[in-house]
């Protein structure tokens, strides 16, 4: 995965387009009108936020030092709050401290409140739902940790977890952490190619999975997919398989694969947690960047855990008596931080939902909220768009009055969806928290503190404690001070939960985040700060697309398309889509176009390419449309101009502008004709 050169390249024109479309002239609601809803339970009012925010920026050592003592249990106290800088490229927090994240999320509550629900499991098939108390969780985590230990797993080893959204995913993650081992979760929707790549990159010897999963009334073939990935992972020595469906046809390899239920029960219900250093890695999570190969983002124990706990408490205003329903997957960062580490580190029950919002009907989320009296609900706008379309009949059937805070994550939430969420789900009695953050940030970067920071539909509002957000002019690299400015979003100084590196490739970390604008962390997103100082996230300015909240690299999809021998060049772009936020469109050029001309062969080729992407990366990455062209738009130096493809596919061919610097301006008309034929877009 060696990486050379600059990873990031601001597409200035793209930023300009995004900014142009933006509308941020919304007045801030008066605090009185706002605070009458429900006040924040930990803060008095907006000036409390302002005061604490100022303290966190002016004296981060004092602020975070105190919070680290208040929120986390330490085996050994730290002697220095933070060290390093963006200029050095090295960052560390809570030096000298020792702790264990599983102790912090399980033991301390299992001792104090053993019978309190910790993981509320809502199964795809409702009748299989169950609740694990903190005492249950401690027992199950210990048993699996004991088993892993007997297999030789120890501090610093990386264990791959390929499990759907079930309590076992949480147990497996915490079992690794209990031993000081590092988990690397692989999203259950990934196919064999992506699994293999991640297992090999992190040199995992042990993998945890299940026989099959259940989702939306269908069975997913976890073990079968993993088996095919493992054919090319000779270093994997042991696989732990949770029997979820019990299908006898699932293939187990003797000596390598073991059943969870049979093995774990032989181990004691308590094993002591292993104390690790603050900066010891807690987990790796792969994410897409500008360039092809996914990056193994590394998060460290103390800083990450503190960020998770603090944002969950202050942004969501999550209190011990609450119940959080994060409808995200543990295969992504939202599931890590807000289905596991955030709520459990505060001793708050987390609802783990195995299914989909549409099964058995569009009322599933609302039914879950009513059933468990969830106080907090956290979801991506893509699900809200789908549920809004399906009408209000299903919502009206359920009592949603337990809700206090409604969160949104993963992509910009259009103001119309924000308002629908506020009115139809929150009945105007809940706080809406649009939370902006990333895999790399570990926890919320910009988000309102529910009940303390007034909101505006569509704005992520103001930065969280310790986040010194800046808007940078992408052309000059200078910070744009004051209000009413647009640019790319950066952060001026390190915060505890930020990623420390990219696994075994620190250069990639520097290239992607710290070198584009020296002295700042670069988020990859365009943003504006309005007249009130509120932040509006405009979307990625690089080659990352966001489909239904899944972060994808266009480069990664392009290289998979190139694996087909018939393809000579490929260009993948993201265009707006009503349902999925963005959709993947691929334009491919063939090596011998004269050999494939009739409609039937073209259709077959498109199908083959789409299937190949599904197989290698995962179903969610498959291009919605594939355009086959004789030639792709290029600069004179031979670089593909993706902006032109994006414009044409979005029906904005009229605004392509000057094509005189192109090497082949004649392709524009051809591309337009092809696009029109393919999906009826007329420019
Ligand atoms: C986008 C997901 C607008 C953004 C937590 C970011 C958002 C990328 C928001 C990270 C939001 C996330 N408003 N855009 N509230 N939240 N994004 O790593 O482009 O899967 O850089 O983390 O999602 O995606 P990731």
TrEMBL record:
<dbReference type="Pfam" id="PF00501">
    <property type="entry name" value="AMP-binding"/>
</dbReference>
<dbReference type="GO" id="GO:0019427">
    <property type="term" value="P:acetyl-CoA biosynthetic process from acetate"/>
</dbReference>
<dbReference type="Pfam" id="PF13193">
    <property type="entry name" value="AMP-binding_C"/>
</dbReference>
<dbReference type="InterPro" id="IPR032387">
    <property type="entry name" value="ACAS_N"/>
</dbReference>
<dbReference type="InterPro" id="IPR000873">
    <property type="entry name" value="AMP-dep_synth/lig_dom"/>
</dbReference>
<comment type="similarity">
    <text>Belongs to the ATP-dependent AMP-binding enzyme family.</text>
</comment>
<dbReference type="Pfam" id="PF16177">
    <property type="entry name" value="ACAS_N"/>
</dbReference>
<keyword id="KW-0067">ATP-binding</keyword>
<dbReference type="GO" id="GO:0005829">
    <property type="term" value="C:cytosol"/>
</dbReference>
<keyword id="KW-0547">Nucleotide-binding</keyword>
<feature type="domain" description="AMP-binding enzyme C-terminal">
    <location>
        <begin position="556"/>
        <end position="639"/>
    </location>
</feature>
<dbReference type="InterPro" id="IPR011904">
    <property type="entry name" value="Ac_CoA_lig"/>
</dbReference>
<dbReference type="GO" id="GO:0005524">
    <property type="term" value="F:ATP binding"/>
</dbReference>
<dbReference type="GO" id="GO:0016208">
    <property type="term" value="F:AMP binding"/>
</dbReference>
<dbReference type="InterPro" id="IPR045851">
    <property type="entry name" value="AMP-bd_C_sf"/>
</dbReference>
<dbReference type="InterPro" id="IPR025110">
    <property type="entry name" value="AMP-bd_C"/>
</dbReference>
<dbReference type="GO" id="GO:0003987">
    <property type="term" value="F:acetate-CoA ligase activity"/>
</dbReference>
<keyword id="KW-0436">Ligase</keyword>
<feature type="domain" description="Acetyl-coenzyme A synthetase N-terminal">
    <location>
        <begin position="49"/>
        <end position="105"/>
    </location>
</feature>
<feature type="domain" description="AMP-dependent synthetase/ligase">
    <location>
        <begin position="108"/>
        <end position="495"/>
    </location>
</feature>
<dbReference type="InterPro" id="IPR020845">
    <property type="entry name" value="AMP-binding_CS"/>
</dbReference>
<protein>
    <recommendedName>
        <fullName>Acetyl-coenzyme A synthetase</fullName>
        <ecNumber>6.2.1.1</ecNumber>
    </recommendedName>
</protein>
<dbReference type="InterPro" id="IPR042099">
    <property type="entry name" value="ANL_N_sf"/>
</dbReference>
